[in-house]
Protein: DUF1304 domain-containing protein
Organism: Tessaracoccus lacteus
Amino acid sequence: MIVLGLVLAALAAALHVFIFYLESLAWTTGRARAVFGTSEEEATATRELAFNQGFYNLFLAVVAGIGIVAWAAGSAVVGASLTLAGVGSMAAAALVLFLSSPDKRPAAVKQGTLPLLAVVVLVLAFAL
């Protein structure tokens, strides 16, 4: 069960790296604008904000990734702590987006499902 939780955490981290790419590196491209539903003018006006926000997503992915590596290297406590901190923060951020922006709820569900599943599976695995 722990392996399933770590796989879910790795998938959540990969998704957040992709979000980093879209927000920080490709924000004004047609693809990113289509994903986020922004116009060219909106994307240009919010470029700096998106750049910063993308790095938040990257850092959460890095924390989860280091936790997975630590777990695989035999440091179960450090690995579990970092992995749960990373995916827990991802899930919490998705919840904030879901509650604060009703028009962005579909994005919040997409962004938060994998981390939430990882948290649930890992917590259950540690409890058993």
User: Anything to note?
Assistant: The two ends are 10 Å apart (CA to CA). The mean pLDDT is 97. Helices lie at 2-25, 30-36, 40-45, 47-72, 76-100, 105-127. Residues 47-72 form the longest helix (26 residues).
